[in-house]
Structure formats: structure tokens, C-alpha cells
Amino acid sequence: MKRIITISLAAILLLSALLSVSCANNEKTSTGDLDREWLDNLPELDFEGEEVMFVFAEGTDTFTERSIKIEETDGDSVNELIAARNTTIEQRLNVSIQSQKVSDNIFGLRDAINSSLSSASGEYDIIAGYQFYDIGLATQGYIVNLNEVGNPDSEYAEETNYIDIDADYWASNYIRSLTYGDALFWVTGDIALRYLGGMYCTFVNTRIYDDNLKQTYGDIYQIAKDGKWTLELLNKMADEVYLDQGTPDETDAEDRLGYAWEQNDPIDGLAFGAGVKFSQMYSDGSIDITIGDQRTIRFVEQLEKLLTSRYSLMVDDGNSANVMQQFASGNVAFTVNKIYQAEARLREMEDNYYVIPVPKLNEDQQEYVTGIHDGLTLFGIPYDAPNVSMSSAVLEALSAESLRTVTPTYYDSYLKFKYTRDENAAAMIDLMRSTTNTDFAAAWSAELDSIVHIFRTSYRSNIITSTLRAKAEATRTKLDDLLEKLDQLGQQ
After folding, report:
1. How is 350-368 classified by DSSP, letter by letter?
2. Which member of 136, 143, 445, 469 has the greatest number of CB atoms within 10 A?
3. Do 345 and 211 form a contact (C-beta atoms < 8 A)?
4. Which helix (H) or strand (E) holds 176?
5. Which residues of 179-192 are buried (b: 16+ CB within 10 A; e: fewer)?
6. DSSP state letter for 28
7. How many CA atoms lie within 13 A of 88 on its CB side?
8. How far is CA 421 from each of CA 12, 173, 403, rounded to the nearest angstrom?
């Protein structure tokens, strides 16, 4: 079988070195050198030309669709690599990878899955869901519990689960946060562009920083490496760099802004970065809502300062793309957003920019925490899939090959710096990848009264305590119901 090799030796060596750090931090199963024939440990498999049908719904962007199958590459280097990845895995496993978009509305997947499963047609092999809206497909009993595959007492006794969630190409910590007891339904990792690009980070205008802050604070990459990038420092720097250049005594888009923001998901990213936990899972397996703790209160104090001070501007209510356009104009020092915004919004930016993690709450926080946008693509296997073994093998092989061929080039092509050539930039990306995480309530937020979105509107210190207390109590009732469903599913 002929393999398709599409990445330079230099990139392989660099990424291999970086991943060794990531493995050490996360106790992941090492895949070894990236020049192994296969990064996974799949046995030789032959599925005799079977079709593997992915099903998804998507709005105006195409991240999920591109993650699965590329129809036309149009010269885009990442798209070409994804197409080549699929060809490689199709040849290796003797399968035909196909995809079906069932709706232009991200809410549309549930209806399509419900219709398909009610007829027991077995037409879909793998579901590619939008985390916030589709994670609840599992509680409806639509998704295979991967922990039951191969269990002699289950209906999947004759099947094999080939997915190794401890491998480098799966988001292991994140996947475990989705899991309750014996119930594991969803996986994600390097196979998903929404994982690679959905990580929250801090974008820093290089010119503004170097001209106004570097002499006082030093290299921004070194600050991040030393663990000193905090919300307090962000507020301090944003204040120092602000310059009123528009309407006197009024913060507007013509000023040199310390921080630009919008009242939407980047605020979720700031909460994750500060180590805010929406829930806590204890050693006995129980889970409780924890958003009213002292860390949360301290986070809101810093968040309120960041969002309401004169050096910050809310560019638009609910559209993070507009914030990135403001950043691209060259008069914003800092903003927090998803990495994938660089692909579409920063390619024409005249200034260069740094990318560093979302700030910690304070220096006492041991590690950075990198949240991922809740539109993250999750992959699950529908309960009527005709060949669960094949579905899991295809996911495992695609994710492993994505790590080797797609991941380095994704960052190299879509960020203005060269991931495979800039040691500092590469280290920052790897630092973020090695600290991606969530918690159970945040991941299952749509089933828990959208708890992860609370700070989008509640960031005033004088009301947050009572707001959080009320939210926690209301969410606990929904949490009890959710855990009862998952308990039942885990025991089936």
C-alpha cells in the first residue's frame, strides 16, 4: 500500500519534540516518533470497501465539513492535506469515506438523527456534532457508549472499540470531562479543525506592545512561559497603553485601545483561563455545581475591571468577527478570541501579532487553562451503525494521521507566524494544546440551563454573588436529572 507523505522532515522533528512536552504534562500515551508508519496501534484491518458515512449540520462556516471530507482543495494547503489524509486511510482500511450535510442550520442535526434512528435505517456510521447543541443526543440514547463496546454482556459484545483516548491525537483531558461513570459517548481531537482552531488565546499587537510595553515588561513570550500572564497584568498593560485619539474623554474605535471585546463566547474563554470551574467531579464520582466559590468572585472582579474600564471597548454585541476586524485595523493592543479567527480575519493585517494563552487569574494558579469554543466538533457513533468496529477504527486512524499531517500545517498556514519555523510561537501553541480542558457542567451546558454562558451578562461584582447562588441552585436540579439519565445509559 502506498503511503502519502505530505509534511517536511523539519516540521516532523519540531512537532515530535513539542509533543513530548505535551505528553509529559498530560500523561498521555506516547505515539513515539512522527515518522512511524502509523501513529496509532491499529491492527491490520480490511473492511472490504465499505462506505463510512459521516453526518453533520453546519451554518455559514465549514470547519466540521472540512474536518471530515474535502471535495475540492482549491490549492489550500490544509484542505489538500485533509484530502490526502482521507485517501491514505481509505487505502489503509479499505473503506470509502463519505459525508452528508443534513442542514444549513446548526440546530438541524437532531431532527435528522431522530428521523434516521426512528426508522432504524443504519444509514449513518459516525455523527459529527456541534458540542453545545448536539451533546444531548447521548442522553436521548442515540449514541453508542464506547465503554460498552466489546463488553460480553452488551449488545456490542462482538464489536471492537479501537479508539485510544489516551493517545496524543485525542483531547484526553477534555474527553474525560465529558464522561460520567461508565458512560463515554463523544470524542474529539486533532481530527477536528474546531479543536485545533477553537482554542481561546490572547492576540497581542506586536507593534503596540513592542513600542509601548516591552521596555517595561520584557518579552511577552517569556512572560507567558514564566507563568506570569494574568488578568491583573492584562488590565495593567491595557491601561498603560490606552491613548485617547478620538472623541475627547470618550472611549471609541478611533482610540488606541487596551482591550477590545464583545459580549459573547470569548468571555467564556476568559473564565476557563482563570481556572473557573462550573462543576467539580469528586473521587467518589459525584458532581456538584461550584460557580459560586471564591475563585469565581475574584475572577468577576478582574473581569468587570477589564470590560468596564476606559481602556476597553465593546466593539459589537454578539459578533466576535467584528472584534477581530477592529484588532486587524491596528489600534487594539489585546483581545481574547478563538485561534481560528486568524484564518479569516487577520490574513490582511498589516501589523504582526503575538499569540499567547488566555491569562490566568493570578500567579498562584499553577497552570494555564485553555478553553475551547463550545461549537467544538464531537464525534460519536449512532446506536444503529451497522459496523461499530469500522466506525471506531476510521475515527482512530483519521485522528492519528491528522496529528502528523494536518495539525502542523494548520498553524503554519493560518497564523501569520510560521508554527514550524518560529520556536517561540510553536511553544505557545503547544502550551495551549497541552492545557485544553473543560469541566462536566461546562461541556453539558445546553442540558444545564446554559450555565457556561453566565458571565456574558453577569460580570458586575455588586450583583454576581446572588446571581451565581441562584444559578447554582437552579442548575443542580437539572444536573441531578442529567446524571440519572447517564447512570441509566451507562448500566444498559
Report:
1. SS-EEEEPPPBSSTTS-S-
2. 143
3. no
4. helix 172-178
5. bbebbbbbbbbbbb
6. P
7. 21
8. 12, 28, 18
Task: Spell out the residues 6+ positions from residue 329 whose beta carbon is closer than 8 angstroms to its own.
Answer: none
Grid coordinates representing 398 are 483519521
In the chain, % helix, strand, coil (3-state, to 5) comes to: 45, 15, 40
Strand-pairing partners, residue 204, are 334, 354
Give the span between the Cα atoms of 51 and 39, in whole angstroms. Answer: 23
Mind listing the domains of the chain with CATH numbers?
Answer: 29-197+374-414 (3.40.190.10), 200-369+439-491 (3.40.190.10)
Q: By three-state DSSP, how is residue 389 classified?
A: helix
* Integer angstrom CA distances of residue 16 from 10, 164, 195: 10, 19, 19
Helix (H), strand (E), coil (C) string for 208-245:
HHHHHCHHHHCCHHHHHHCCCCEHHHHHHHHHHHCECC
Task: Print pLDDT tens along the chain (492 aa).
Answer: 322 323 333 343 344 434 433 333 344 444 456 678 899 999 999 999 999 999 999 988 899 999 999 988 787 889 999 999 999 999 999 999 999 999 999 888 988 888 888 777 789 999 999 999 999 999 998 999 999 999 998 889 999 999 999 999 999 989 999 999 888 999 999 999 999 899 999 999 999 999 999 999 999 999 999 999 999 999 999 999 999 997 888 888 899 999 999 888 999 999 999 999 999 988 888 899 998 888 999 999 999 999 999 999 998 766 777 899 999 999 999 999 999 888 878 888 899 999 999 999 999 999 999 999 999 999 999 999 999 999 999 999 999 999 999 998 888 877 766 655 567 888 898 899 889 889 999 999 999 999 999 998 888 877 788 888 888 888 999 999 999 998 888 666
Q: How many CA atoms lie within 13 A of 216 on its CB side?
A: 9
Q: What pairs with residue 183 in β-bridges?
A: 180
